[in-house]
Write a structure and sequence with these properties.
This protein has 182 residues and is of the alpha+beta class. The protein contains four helices and nine strands, in the order ααββββαβββββα.
């Protein structure tokens, strides 16, 4: 039996959920927060067809359609530190997934959102009375037209200059809503 004082000093008792599943949940939470702030609705394709989420942005100011959609593929890694000095974060995509995301032309545009998370799950979130933080950050890019470069997988570089936040999502949706690309 563990002494109560010893158990308390060990930190919270975290569940046995696999780290990959935890990372997926954290990415979804990040996306939900960004989409809520940008005024988008979200739909999860069921069954999973290779796209994680479809976001819809409605505005009478869009010229192409009053509602525009964007397909999102989420990836995360702890292999990069926050704000990498090389200016990009790299994530691996299977060549078949990349081919699907890179198709052109499309009716509904697609982007890749790559999130850097701390390796230690205990560092993922922090809460206080006035702020709730998710660590670290997500970045986005369109991979339209990109060709695979590996045998089975391709390392896709996502620029850290393209932070994925609500303002970026609003800008993406405005471009799509005016008939352009992300």
């Amino acid at each position: 039996m563990i002494d109560i004082d010893v158990a308390a000093s060990m930190g919270p008792l975290r569940g046995d959920l696999a780290k990959k599943q935890r990372m997926e949940m954290l990415q979804d939470s990040y996306l939900r927060a960004v989409a809520a702030a940008a005024g988008c609705t979200m739909a999860k394709p069921e069954p999973d067809d290779g796209i994680d989420w479809v976001l819809t942005h409605a505005s009478e100011e869009h010229t192409a359609d009053c509602q525009v959609d964007l397909k999102i593929q989420l990836k995360s890694t702890w292999m990069s530190k926050p704000n990498p000095q090389n200016g990009f974060v790299s994530v691996n995509l299977s060549n078949s997934r990349l081919a699907m995301l890179a198709k052109s032309p499309v009716i509904v545009h697609r982007i890749l959102v790559a999130m850097i998370v701390p390796e230690d799950v205990a560092d993922w979130v922090e809460a206080s009375h006035d702020i709730f933080k998710l660590r670290h950050c997500a970045y986005w890019r369109s991979v339209t037209g990109m060709q695979s470069s590996g045998i089975d997988n391709t390392a896709v570089r996502v620029s850290t200059s393209q932070i994925f936040d609500d303002a970026a999502l609003c800008d993406i949706m405005k471009r799509i809503g005016n008939g352009g690309a992300p």
